[in-house]
Amino acid sequence: MDFVASQQDVDDIPLILKPTRMAFVPLLEERRREIESIRCETYQYGPTDRHKLDIYYPPSDSVKREKAPVLIFAYGGGFGTGERLYRPPIDLIYRNVGAFFAKRGIVFVIPDYRLVPDAIFPQPAEDLRDAVRWVIDRAEDASNPVPLDTANVFLLGHCTGANLIVTMLLLRGLLPPDIRSRIRGVALMGGLYHISEGSTSVNHAVIAHYYGDRQQLRSRTPLALLDQASKDPQQELPAILVLVSEREPEDIMQSNTRFIFRLGRRHTEVCSGHQHEEVCSGLRHEDVQLFEMDGHNHISPELTLWTGQGEEWAIRVLDWIEAQCGSE
Predict the structure, then answer these.
(1) What's the pLDDT tens digit per position in 72-91?
(2) Hey, how many other C-beta atoms are within 10 angstroms of the C-beta on 42?
(3) How many CB atoms lie within 10 A of CB 94?
(4) 226 φ/ψ angles, rounded to the nearest 5 degrees
(5) DSSP secondary structure letters along 234-252
(6) What is d(CA 283, CA 293) in angstroms, rounded to the nearest whole number?
């Protein structure tokens, strides 16, 4: 984490991406044997090479209940990049995340999804929905040796992944009620929910390909969908945990502030010694919590797992999942 603290220009995600990753590669390499000891299986959930998912299975002695909660992870990459499996020397990235949560009793799922230029709105969100559907429908096939608790499904999304989760939840007609009812909570990490011409954290050519023209962009971003959903008295959201890095780019920080503000209720959350109170707009939902990831930049949270540094955010997610499962 000392390297992360020393970085300048944290608003420039492409600039800090490779150096941040490479700073953690040696630390992950030291734990390779432990990370790879966690069982992982690959499944096909759709018709293309981008429709594959990996399931990380918890050791049976780590599961606290008869069945293990499911956490489905949507990684980031700006709609144009991202892989569930990377090649060496960064091949432990995301494997470390799956192994970390599985080691602690969670069935962890990482799906790939279609990317620009082969995808336009809302196809990646549809892919995410289909991955969730596959896990629910094929739980028995995919649950050896640990049964999956498909009544307790959670989603974790970083950056673009958080965007896709919110789109999946809010775009009218995309998520069937039988899937929505099984999603107990979503953890949204460093999401960009509003995109303007001044946004510095995106490739605007990729955004134009994905969303369409300016009018389509304005109506399709998560904040726009949230505003539309707030007018529907029947629209419900699961519990929400919003995670932001201390050193997020300014446009992402502002986007999260606006997103929280609009979520629909007044809440107070103690976060890293600071008290955040947001007055929201009336959208129905069960719970919203905020957690600031101390010392992190936009890239670093996933990289820290199994290094013994900066893992507090993941422990917070685990505690949150346990609380939601315990509230049945």
Answers:
(1) 999 999 999 999 999 999 99
(2) 11
(3) 23
(4) -65, -40
(5) T-EE-EEEEEEEEE--HHH
(6) 26
| Helix H or strand E encompassing 176 | none
Distance CA 49, CA 112 (A): 9
Full DSSP string of 57-86: PPPGGG-SSSSEEEEEEE--STTT---SSP
How far apart (Å, rounded) are the C-alpha atoms in residues 273 and 265?
Answer: 22
Phi, psi of 15 (to 5 degrees): -70, -40
Q: Which of 13, 16, 11, 248 is nearest to 3 (CA)?
A: 16
pLDDT, tens digit, 9 for 90 and up, residues 49-77: 999 999 999 998 898 888 999 999 999 99
* Residue in the block written with tokens 């009018």: 215
The full set of domains in the chain, from first to last, is 2-326 (3.40.50.1820)
Count other C-beta atoms under 10 Å from residue 294's C-beta. 15
Which alpha helices (H) appear in the chain, and where do they start and end? 2-6, 13-29, 32-36, 95-103, 123-137, 160-170, 177-180, 204-211, 214-220, 222-229, 250-261, 300-303, 312-326
Enter the DSSP assignment of 11.
T
Q: What is the pLDDT of residues 121-171, one digit of tens each?
A: 999 999 999 999 999 998 877 766 788 999 999 999 999 999 999 999 999
Tell me if 20 sits within 8 A of 303, measured CB to CB. yes
Torsion-angle region of 105 (φ positive above 0: left; ψ -120 to 50: alpha; else: beta):
left
Dist CA 32 CA 91 (whole Å)? 10
Question: Which are the contacts of 271, defined by CB distance < 8 A and separation ≥ 6?
Answer: 290, 291, 292
d(CA 16, CA 287) in angstroms, rounded, equals 33
Angle at 24 between CA 102 and CA 185, to 5 degrees: 35
CA dihedral sign of residues 238, 165, 176, 52: negative
